């Protein structure tokens, strides 16, 4: 409503076009409604509408006196708040009963439609419809949804009826037109005409026409189709009760086929009284014995059940139903007879042929019990199959206390399960055990040591309840090999599964066995290398093979023998060192092993670098030696020391440092002698405020005057003038004047001064602490420069970039098997190494970040990414042999990159880059060999002479030789590969008249004439001489023609090809002609 009022969406597109002066044609003649109905909208809505002759003289609606009628009422509407709509209970109940009345007039439900102007009324009508099963199928719709539809009979509920006279959109001409023009034969409207009359002039005209036709009133007149003069006026739903069967209130009283008169109220339907209306009078038929039927007339009489006394064939009499044949009745009269088999007398029913003896059997069974069933001389008379169900009279098996068996007699007795207490062999009492249990097999539950002496002489170390066995570890000698092993005493030494020592035997091949002693020696598994005099592809004259492969013949260029070449590589690497690898390990110089020459350079921290190769020494990872009197540095040498913030402890009675420990001291060294006495009561030979030297000038004269700097044996050394310093790091006592000169010399050199006696760095002696601090600060500056400004921000940035690259590669390695399942080896290796890297990066801190070579890993990820840039090209290579070569190369190369990612040297990076270039050339060669144009060129090329070298096959062989050579790949080789590749492409272009791409274009252009378009296959054919042509539409030929090239017969008739026809696979990839049994089978899917 809101959309209609505010946005005018109630105006149809057709009306908008008419309002916009679009040319149109109005309806001039209608073929739907009878004239009485069309007069309501003519000329009020359609001024010039005329009726077609087909709508005149249509049959009247049965059961009603009028074909069109307006039932007026003043019952008010109700508000349906849930959906903001309206309903009228009076109209709904009346129209439902009226619809039922029409159904009883033999109208089908699909001939009747109930229309209403409000959805609330529609839901009300549908709920009432469910109460009457014969109304199923009647359509109940709102007027707006029924536009464009029609039906034979329309019942229209207008709903609106209120004190205010509001009719809503019932005054809208469009809706009135739709509501009044849906019926073909009958239209019955129900509403409050007083409200409608006052709402618009259109309703005034409609009322006048209804009154003129005598089709307006407060009551609808119904007529009986049986009793023509009987009519019923209805204005509410209760008025239909008197004519509930659709006729009138008069009795039917028609003569039925049975001879009775119908006693039902008048009914229009089932006038033949065969389906719904049946005779309810008593039946007047009788059976052959003149017994009257007691059922209703319409019901089937069935069999006569009156009892009669009848004589049976056996002579006895029995009371049977009238219809029952005495010949088929079983006589149940009881008679006494003597049985032949057992001689017993018994009572049986007369009809029984083989009665059973009811005398009890008195025979004794094998178990000793008496038989308790009836005589059975005809069934198992000797009781062989008899099952005795009496309780067993035996004792339980293995019972020690006379417990009787509780099973049935026929069941097998079991071990006694009664719970008793038993005394075990160990002397302990075991409670609640099975009576049948053997005390030897019962484990004692007491937690006491066994302590029984075993045969071996050892005491049993098990618990009392455990089986005795000696678990003492002793040394035993294996009788076969002579090796000794420490095993449990109970175990017998056997070489084949106990001896794990290295085997010392010599195999039949002459080599020592490398396996464990417990395994059998097998010369066929010998992995000792032996050499043969044979020149390899790498140029060396010794071919090394495994002993087990000595009898095999290997190609000198095979990977097997080249990888085992033991000749030293000796190539000068980019780092300046000689390669320490072998020819095989370095892949004939294609990828060198990491340099293993120790660096041995002295770091600023005074530690020797033990890292292999001096190309790029890593930061020193040894523990920092610097310490003070308060604490020691916990970081590695390469990390800047954390400064000590404790107060400086260097003080004496003459001077005192007031700064923190890490700052330069603001006091000079004190040169006053120490006044303390040694244990020997002599004067200290040290300085004031410093640690006293442990040596005495008198008691240790020889050691004190031992010449180091030349001042120790001067005469004044015996007096207090010459003093000494105690070095706390190495515990040596050194003459002070010479030591100070030693400390102050070569001050330009940034290195911690060392003890002149033992060369240990002087770090803890307070007298020289300012010098130590100064040197340590310089060392930290040098280390920071060596780390290339390794600040946290730069390192974190590198780590973040590397982590992102690794995770990106993880996703790519997840899909690497799409290229080939063989890449699973590289995939597992990558995830093993990358997972460890990510874990280390998560737990690493700035202090020990140097344990990861971020630059090396970054280089490795870039190399891996360059490989994945060729993923799709490798994946779509179709030549299997060429693809295997590519995959073999990249599996080896990617494995090397991942294995050496922690430490990729410049030499290895250069080698890998060259091998990457070789690999990408191999990809290009494989793609060329997979190209259909290449295969066609090989087929088409005919060498002009046997000496002509420029054939496609020979040129490809030259390229393969360059790319698969065992020597290192270099720029000259790459240039030659490029030249040969260009030459091959030019030859292919000259030999292939139509390229693969051109064939695809031709197929696309012609496929518009094929039944299934471009997806069609098998339409391209070859004549007997190989010339290509096509058959359009379904692909099956219907006529013959001549090949324009060779004039042989082509095509065929009735979808049958001429002899010699073959499929042109190169055009669309088809393997069968379009019209063939093999191709047709592709249209079906088989499980």
TrEMBL record:
Note the Gene3D superfamilies from the entry: P-loop containing nucleotide triphosphate hydrolases (3.40.50.300)
The reply on keyword Nucleus is no
Q: Which UniProt keywords apply?
A: Cytoplasm, Immunity, Metal-binding, Repeat, Zinc, Zinc-finger
Source species, domain of life:
Eukaryota
Q: Where in the cell is it found?
A: Cytoplasm
RZ-type domain: which residues? 994-1073
Its protein name is NFX1-type zinc finger-containing protein 1-like
Which organism was this protein described from? Aphis craccivora (Cowpea aphid)
């Amino acid at each position: 409503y809101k959309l209609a009022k505010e946005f005018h969406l109630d105006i149809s597109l057709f009306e908008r076009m008419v309002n916009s002066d679009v040319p149109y044609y109005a309806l001039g003649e209608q073929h739907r409604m009878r004239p009485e109905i069309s007069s309501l909208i003519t000329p009020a809505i359609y001024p010039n509408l005329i009726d077609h002759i087909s709508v005149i003289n249509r049959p009247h609606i049965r059961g009603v006196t009028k074909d069109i009628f307006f039932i007026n009422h003043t019952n008010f509407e109700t508000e349906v708040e849930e959906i903001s709509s309206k309903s009228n209970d009076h109209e709904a109940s009346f129209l439902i009963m009226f619809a039922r009345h029409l159904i009883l007039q033999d109208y089908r439900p699909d001939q009747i439609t109930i229309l209403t102007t409000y959805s609330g009324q529609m839901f009300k009508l549908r709920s009432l419809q469910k109460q009457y099963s014969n109304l199923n199928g009647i359509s109940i719709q709102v007027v707006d949804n029924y536009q464009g539809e029609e039906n034979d009979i329309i019942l229209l509920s207008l709903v609106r009826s209120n004190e205010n006279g509001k009719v809503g959109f019932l005054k809208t001409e469009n809706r009135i037109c739709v509501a009044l023009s849906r019926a073909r034969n009958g239209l019955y409207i129900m509403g409050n005409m007083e409200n409608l009359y006052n709402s618009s002039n259109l309703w005034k005209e409609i009322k006048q026409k209804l009154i003129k036709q005598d089709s307006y009133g407060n009551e609808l007149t119904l007529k009986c189709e049986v009793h023509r003069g009987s009519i019923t006026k209805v204005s509410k739903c209760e008025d239909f009760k008197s004519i509930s069967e659709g006729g009138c209130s008069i009795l039917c009283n028609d003569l039925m086929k049975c001879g009775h008169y119908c006693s039902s109220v008048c009914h229009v339907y089932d006038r033949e009284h065969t389906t719904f209306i049946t005779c309810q009078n008593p039946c007047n038929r009788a059976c052959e014995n003149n017994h009257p039927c007691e059922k209703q007339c319409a019901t089937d009489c069935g069999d006569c059940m009156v009892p009669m006394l009848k004589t049976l064939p056996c002579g006895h009499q029995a009371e049977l139903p009238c219809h029952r044949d005495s010949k088929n009745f079983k006589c149940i009269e009881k008679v006494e007879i003597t049985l032949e088999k057992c001689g017993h007398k018994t009572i049986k029913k007369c009809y029984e042929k083989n009665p059973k003896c009811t005398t009890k059997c008195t025979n004794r069974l094998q178990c000793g019990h008496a038989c308790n069933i009836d005589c059975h001389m005809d069934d198992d008379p000797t009781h062989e199959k008899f099952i005795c169900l009496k309780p067993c009279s035996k004792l339980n098996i293995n019972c020690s206390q006379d417990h009787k068996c509780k099973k049935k007699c026929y069941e097998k007795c079991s071990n006694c399960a009664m719970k008793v207490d038993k005394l075990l062999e160990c002397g302990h009492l075991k409670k609640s055990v099975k009576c049948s249990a053997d005390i030897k097999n019962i484990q004692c539950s007491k937690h006491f040591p066994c302590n029984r002496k075993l045969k071996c002489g050892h005491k049993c170390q098990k618990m009392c309840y455990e089986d005795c066995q000696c678990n003492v570890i002793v040394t035993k000698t294996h009788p076969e090999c002579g090796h000794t092993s420490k095993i449990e005493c109970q175990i017998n030494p056997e070489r084949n599964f106990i001896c794990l020592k290295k085997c010392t035997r010599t195999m039949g091949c002459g080599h020592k066995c490398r396996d464990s002693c417990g395994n059998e020696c097998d010369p066929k598994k010998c992995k000792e290398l032996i050499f043969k005099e044979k020149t390899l592809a790498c140029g060396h004259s010794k071919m090394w093979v495994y002993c087990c492969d000595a009898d095999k013949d290997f190609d000198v260029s095979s990977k097997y023998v080249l990888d085992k070449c033991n000749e030293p590589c000796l190539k000068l690497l980019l780092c300046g060192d000689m390669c320490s690898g072998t020819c095989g390990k370095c892949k004939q110089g294609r990828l060198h092993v990491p340099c293993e020459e120790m660096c041995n350079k002295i770091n600023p921290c005074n530690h020797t670098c033990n890292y292999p190769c001096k190309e790029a020494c890593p930061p020193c990872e040894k523990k920092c030696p610097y310490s003070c009197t308060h604490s020691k540095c916990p970081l590695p040498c390469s990390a800047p020391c954390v400064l000590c913030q404790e107060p400086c402890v260097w003080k004496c009675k003459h001077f005192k440092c007031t700064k923190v420990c890490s700052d330069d001291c603001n006091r000079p060294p004190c040169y006053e002698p120490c006044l303390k006495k040694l244990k020997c009561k002599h004067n200290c030979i040290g300085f004031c405020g410093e640690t006293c030297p442990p040596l005495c000038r008198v008691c240790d004269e020889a050691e004190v005057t031992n010449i180091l700097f030349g001042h120790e044996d001067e005469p004044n050394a015996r007096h207090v003038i010459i003093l000494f310093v105690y070095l706390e790091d190495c515990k040596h006592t050194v003459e002070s004047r010479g030591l100070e000169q030693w400390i102050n010399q070569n001050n330009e050199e940034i290195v911690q001064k060392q003890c002149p006696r033992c060369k240990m760095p002087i770090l803890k002696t307070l007298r020289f602490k300012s010098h130590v601090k100064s040197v340590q600060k310089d060392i930290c500056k040098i280390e920071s420069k060596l780390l290339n400004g390794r600040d946290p921000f730069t390192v974190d940035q590198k780590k973040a970039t590397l982590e992102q690259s690794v995770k990106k590669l993880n996703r790519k390695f997840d899909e690497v098997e799409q290229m080939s399942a063989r890449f699973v080896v590289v995939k597992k290796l990558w995830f093993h190494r990358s997972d460890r890297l990510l874990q280390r990066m998560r737990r690493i801190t700035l202090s020990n970040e140097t344990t990861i070579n971020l630059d090396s890993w970054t280089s490795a990820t870039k190399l891996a990414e360059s490989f994945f840039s060729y993923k799709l090209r490798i994946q779509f290579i179709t030549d299997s042999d060429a693809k295997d070569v590519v995959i073999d190369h990249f599996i080896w190369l990617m494995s090397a990159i991942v294995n050496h990612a922690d430490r990729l040297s410049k030499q290895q990076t250069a080698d890998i880059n060259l091998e990457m270039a070789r690999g990408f050339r191999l990809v290009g060669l494989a793609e060329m060999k997979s190209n259909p144009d290449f295969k066609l060129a090989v087929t088409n090329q005919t060498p002009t002479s046997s000496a002509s070298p420029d054939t496609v096959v020979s040129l490809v062989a030259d390229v393969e030789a360059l790319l698969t050579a065992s020597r290192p790949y270099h720029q000259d080789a790459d240039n030659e590969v490029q030249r040969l590749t260009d030459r091959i492409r030019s030859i292919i272009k000259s030999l292939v008249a139509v390229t693969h791409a051109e064939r695809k274009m031709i197929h696309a252009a012609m496929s518009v004439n094929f039944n299934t378009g471009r997806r069609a296959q098998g339409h391209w054919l070859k004549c007997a001489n190989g010339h290509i042509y096509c058959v359009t539409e379904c692909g099956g030929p219907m006529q013959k023609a001549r090949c324009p090239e060779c004039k042989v017969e082509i095509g065929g008739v009735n979808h049958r090809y001429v002899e010699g026809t073959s499929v042109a696979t190169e055009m669309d990839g088809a393997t069968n002609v379009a019209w063939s049994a093999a191709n047709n089978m592709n249209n079906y899917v088989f499980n």
